[in-house]
Write a structure and sequence with these properties.
The complex is a heterodimer of chains A (281) and B (351). Chain A has 281 residues and is mostly helical. Helix content of chain A is 73%, strand content 1%. Chain A has 2 domains: 41 residues; 218 residues, MetI-like (MetI-like fold), CATH 1.10.3720.10. Chain B is of the alpha+beta class and 351 residues long. Chain B is built from 8 helices and 19 strands. Classes of the chains: A mainly alpha (281), B alpha+beta (351). The interface between A and B is medium-sized, with 21 and 27 residues. Chain B: It comes from Pseudochelatococcus lubricantis.
């Protein structure tokens, strides 16, 4: 074997080792959580830990199904779906206005949108004003409050991502559509947005994950157990007298699934856009 | 079909005047070419007809109706863009018929028109393809098709051939002209290519710095340029322009280097400073005339361009027949009085 070949082999092996380490580092806790959710209760905290459970059991899953987890998951799915749809529709219209129209105060609006992005990801900072505002509107503890708040939190990101994509599209497309007889909304929805699929995918992912994973507003703005979102429901397994690890792990495991599904659905848009060269005329 | 007119039309962005007081009539069925250097305002003027740019003052009329405040879609015009502006996610058929769909035309009529246009443009085999699957020339045809099916009052073309290779450009320029003449649709065509301007238009408007320098038939403009700018802009190779002073007889002028040039029929006063223009193909190499020395020779195969230095001035000479000449060769230049263009040194206007 020549020196060059062995060097190549060595660098390849170290790359594989490094990748494996990263993979284990990232997936390890998830795997531990999934296996934990399937272990009999007494095995979870046993020391020294056993790599594999002695027997697989669905008792924790049965427990969370009884405790209202599925209802909370359904609530969160509905909240997230509404957030995605409304944020995309309103966000694309706002992005269009900010990118294509000239109006007074445009720079200020854009500044506020950008300023809203970090505020939304640190939503705890907004919880007191949000609570007071929603209470004064008579909306707290209603089915509308969480979708409204989630839309407000995620809209700035959606606007920002979509504006970037619209900005990359030639204005001659708008002009051709205008001459063809299309109005602004028609131009946006039939000509421009189909060319922004990657951005739509990215914005939808942000909104879905943002709404699904939100905890603080979900725990403060609704009291009614029937309106509770999924993250709050997971937290229910942490009691005053310690953590009920089995149901906690089972709930956390199930809560990952919609995120994976969202990546499969919206991620496809991202990839489709990247490989298609869609904006090339 | 329509009659388009401009009445004292201006456009400015705050203090910058991009279009200055344009008065222009485009008759029914006519093809007008707007030509000029980059930034002269020709595209802006076209976009003002389309309704894509606002009018600061004056009136644009289509068929005697002032359209200044009319939306593009209500003007019943079609436009072919430089980038074609095809909708990338729509097939050729969908691209062509989008405008008809927006006008809520009946489905069978849409199909009939799409078929007709695609046959005329040789696109019938490509109706299911997407723009990215087409060559530049085919995309150009789709853009044409999109304009054709609408059967609009007027076609507007914004440098539609500038992205095509030279051969295709010649072919498309003939096709567009033939189609326009066959349909008899009023058309405005913007280009910076003077060959396109000369070959395609019924009339040419030469633009410079937001204004129109001259309007006329192509040959009119070539034979009698209204000023120095038009004379230099139209014609390739470029016209020879020489500073000179009118002599005592008022019928000839002399350059600082001592070259005597006839001034033809222009009424000039002795001592007047002028610039004399003579097109390269009008300078003759013959048995008598001003002596000169060949400085450079360019053979294109079709003709020969010779740069001759005479009395301290470099003069471009275009010879149609095949001539083999060498640098340093001595020649005699004759300058026919009838082909001289005399311009004022101060204003550049034709004398």
């Amino acid at each position: 074997m020549s020196a060059a070949m062995s060097r190549k082999l060595r660098s390849r092996l170290s790359l594989i080792a490094f990748s494996a380490f990263i993979l284990i580092f990232n997936l390890g806790p998830i795997l531990w959580g999934i296996l934990g959710s399937l272990r009999p209760r007494e095995e979870i905290m046993r020391f020294p830990p056993q790599p594999l459970p002695s027997s697989l059991s669905l008792e924790h899953y049965a427990a969370i199904a009884e405790s209202g987890f599925l209802g909370a998951a359904r609530n969160s799915l509905i909240y997230a779906a509404i957030t995605v749809v409304v944020a995309l529709v309103a966000g694309s219209i706002a992005a269009y206005a900010l990118d294509r129209l000239r109006f007074a105060g445009k720079a200020v609006v854009m500044f506020l949108v950008i300023a809203g992005i970090p505020l939304a990801s640190g939503a705890a900072a907004l919880i007191v004003p949000s609570y007071l505002y929603m209470t004064s509107l008579g909306l707290s503890d209603t089915p509308w409050v969480l979708p409204l708040v989630y839309i407000a939190y995620n809209l700035p990101t959606a606007v920002w991502v979509l504006k970037g994509a619209l900005g990359g599209l030639s204005r001659e497309l708008d002009e051709a559509a205008a001459i063809d007889g299309a109005g602004r909304l028609r131009t946006l929805f039939e000509i421009l947005l189909p060319l922004c699929k990657p951005a739509i995918g990215a914005a939808a992912l942000f909104c879905f994950v943002g709404a699904w994973n939100e905890f603080v507003a979900g725990s403060v703005l609704v009291d009614n157990p029937d309106l509770r979102p999924v993250q709050v429901s997971i937290y229910q397994n942490m009691g005053y007298f310690g953590r009920d690890w089995g149901p906690l792990l089972a709930a956390a495991t199930l809560a990952i699934l919609p995120i994976i599904a969202a990546f499969l659905v919206f991620g496809r848009l991202l990839i489709a856009g990247l490989t298609k060269g869609a904006v090339k005329g | 079909m329509a009659h388009i007119s401009f009445e004292n039309v201006s456009k400015s962005y705050s203090t910058l005047n991009v279009i200055r007081d344009i008065n222009l009539d485009i008759h029914d069925g006519e093809m007008l070419i707007l030509v000029g250097p980059s930034g002269c305002g020709k595209s802006t003027l076209l976009r003002m007809i389309a309704g894509l740019e606002s009018v600061s003052s004056g009136a644009i009329r289509i068929d005697d109706r002032v359209v200044n405040d009319l939306d593009p879609r209500d003007r019943d015009i079609a436009m072919v863009f430089q980038s074609y502006a095809l909708y990338p996610h729509k097939t050729v058929l969908e691209n062509i018929t989008f405008g008809l769909r927006m006008r809520r035309m009946a489905g069978d009529e849409i199909l009939r028109r799409a078929k007709q246009a695609s046959m005329a443009l040789g696109l019938d085999a490509y109706l299911d393809r997407y723009p990215r699957q087409l060559s530049g020339g085919q995309r150009q045809r789709v853009a044409m098709g999109r304009a054709l099916v609408r059967e609009p009052k007027a076609f507007l073309f914004d440098e539609p051939l500038s992205n095509l290779d030279a051969q295709l450009r010649v072919q498309m320029r003939m096709e567009i002209r033939a189609l326009q003449q066959k349909l008899g649709v009023t058309s405005v065509y913007v280009t910076h290519d003077q060959i396109e301007a000369m070959t395609m238009g019924d009339k040419i408007a030469v633009m410079n710095r937001g204004g129109i320098e001259q309007i006329g038939t192509p040959l009119d403009i070539y034979d009698r340029p209204a000023n120095e700018f038009v004379a230099t802009f139209i014609g390739s190779p470029m016209i020879n322009l020489l500073d000179a002073e009118v002599r005592g007889d008022g019928r000839s002028a002399v350059t600082p280097g001592g070259l005597v040039l006839p001034t033809g029929t222009a009424a000039l006063s002795p001592g007047e400073k002028v610039r004399i223009g003579i097109r390269p193909e009008h300078v003759r190499l013959g048995d008598d005339g001003a002596p000169g020395i060949v400085e450079a020779v360019e053979q294109t195969g079709l003709d020969t361009l010779v740069l001759v230095r005479t009395s301290g001035t470099a003069m471009r000479v275009l010879i149609r027949e095949r001539r083999y000449m060498e640098r340093g060769q001595k020649v005699l230049l004759s300058l026919p009085p009838a082909d001289m263009h005399v311009f004022s040194s101060d204003t550049g206007a034709r004398r």
